[in-house]
Design goal:
three-stranded antiparallel β-sheet; 166 residues; Ribosomal Protein L22, Chain A
Length: 166
């Protein structure tokens, strides 16, 4: 299974005041708040953690069909920080989702998968034949067949990302 989230950093700066009193406490665990406070760029850490939670939640929702606001039940951990991406995982209700976050000047993009080896097989696609089930969960419909493949769609501001496991 797959989920993804993209954050337009320019739009986030205009629309969100993540530094206001109580904001971080409402969304992040104590450990995540410490990661943010100790990071050289707290703004990037806030949006990276949020993006990890959102991408993992899309898998959780696809699996359970449950829609609920549970940011503190999605617990992020960072595993490896490279120059061009960050690997982590998100624990949610006894499920572990593996994440890979790319940080760019104007946006950041996180992909989450339920099996760690799938992180090496992520394909970004253009809009094709996307269908949604009765829960609003998107699938990619293969040409000339009824086979549906998990796909994840995310958009924020000027950016849209559609990904699947290849």
């Amino acid at each position: 299974m797959i989920g993804n989230d993209v954050i337009d950093l320019i739009q986030s700066r205009r629309e969100s005041n993540w530094q206001r009193k109580g904001y971080l406490e409402k969304i992040f665990t104590v450990e995540e708040q410490i990661l943010t406070a100790e990071h050289s760029n707290p703004e990037i850490m806030v949006w990276m953690l949020w993006s990890m939670k959102e991408a993992a939640y899309k898998i959780y929702n696809r699996k359970t069909k449950v829609r609920e606001y549970i940011p503190k039940k999605l617990v992020c951990s960072l595993l490896t920080q490279k120059t061009d991406f960050v690997l982590g995982h998100v624990n949610c209700c006894e499920n572990i989702y593996y994440t890979k976050t790319y940080i760019f000047e104007e946006n950041l993009h996180t992909v989450a998968v339920s099996r760690s080896e799938d992180l090496e097989n992520i394909i970004e696609i253009n809009k094709k034949t996307i269908v949604k089930d009765q829960y609003g969960i998107p699938y990619l419909q293969a040409k000339s067949s009824n086979i549906l493949q998990d796909v994840s769609i995310s958009h924020h501001g000027r950016f849209e990302k559609i990904v699947c496991i290849g």
